Inverse folding.
């Protein structure tokens, strides 16, 4: 029985999801004036990376082991992005002592510090990372990002277990 969603169309769906998530983020920043904190910026980078992987896979249209490699890469990226989104949700919903802000931007941290130190500072989060600036249907931005990472991660896992096209 042929699946309704082919390998190529599932990659297109994943790319459209990533593109949409980034589009909403840019809209909220440029039109609504919501400046992203370092955790938000890191989530954007992961969505951009996922989008590149989905687009490359769609254009290449792999089969066999190639599908499994792309599926695993998508899942790992989505897992990392989801963990960042969960960290920000935890910061938003855990009562904390007020702090100043998240500090300097993501670009500066990645340029001035070794990657491990920069990631440690980014994931600590504080002030601005914990403030809820926007909601849609009761979910905050990292909540929506988490749903996006779950959806893309599901597409990655689903590709690895498909039998009808491999």
């Amino acid at each position: 029985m042929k699946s309704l969603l082919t390998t190529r169309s599932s990659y297109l769906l994943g790319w459209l999801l990533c593109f949409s998530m980034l589009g909403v983020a840019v809209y909220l920043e440029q039109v609504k004036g919501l400046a992203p904190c370092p955790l938000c910026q890191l989530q954007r980078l992961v969505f951009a990376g996922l989008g590149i992987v989905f687009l490359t896979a769609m254009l290449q249209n792999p089969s066999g082991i190639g599908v499994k490699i792309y599926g695993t890469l998508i899942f790992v990226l989505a897992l990392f992005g989801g963990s960042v989104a969960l960290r920000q949700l935890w910061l938003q919903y855990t009562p904390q002592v007020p702090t100043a802000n998240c500090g300097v931007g993501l670009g500066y941290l990645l340029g001035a510090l070794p990657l491990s130190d920069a990631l440690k500072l980014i994931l600590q989060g504080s002030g601005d990372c914990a403030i809820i600036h926007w909601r849609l249907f009761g979910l905050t931005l990292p909540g929506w990002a988490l749903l996006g990472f779950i959806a893309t991660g599901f597409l990655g896992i689903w590709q690895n277990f498909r039998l009808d096209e491999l």
